[in-house]
Inverse folding.
């Protein structure tokens, strides 16, 4: 085990101590896990059987794909887009003008002259 030595020469060993109150909680958690392990998840019946009977096999079913639902006598609605572009707002007769560029091209990257 590792530890350290105090100035006065006392050797202090490293140890780990659980926070107060955790031993009761740990014991309770262990009991719950053990109960779930013992009583839960068993396919055997706990009745007055011999313990050798098996769980019933799952039912097999025949399914044909694609699944067709019985018709209700009316046609299903066709999906339609909820938005058509360009979006036309009520009251706007004309489109907004294109914005003018804020910079003049070509951009001069030489910034050695002058400064702030």
């Amino acid at each position: 085990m590792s530890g350290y030595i105090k100035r006065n020469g006392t050797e202090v060993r490293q140890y780990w101590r659980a926070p107060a109150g955790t031993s009761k909680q740990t014991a309770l958690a262990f009991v719950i896990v053990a109960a779930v392990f013992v009583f839960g998840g068993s396919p055997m019946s706990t009745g007055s059987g011999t313990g050798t009977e098996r769980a019933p096999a799952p039912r097999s079913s025949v399914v044909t794909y694609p699944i067709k639902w019985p018709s209700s006598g009316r046609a299903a609605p066709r999906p339609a887009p909820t938005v058509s572009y360009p979006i036309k707002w009520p009251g706007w007769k004309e489109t907004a003008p294109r914005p003018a560029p804020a910079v003049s091209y070509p951009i001069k990257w030489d910034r050695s002259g002058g400064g702030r």
In short: The first helix runs from residue 22 to 39. The mean pLDDT is 77.
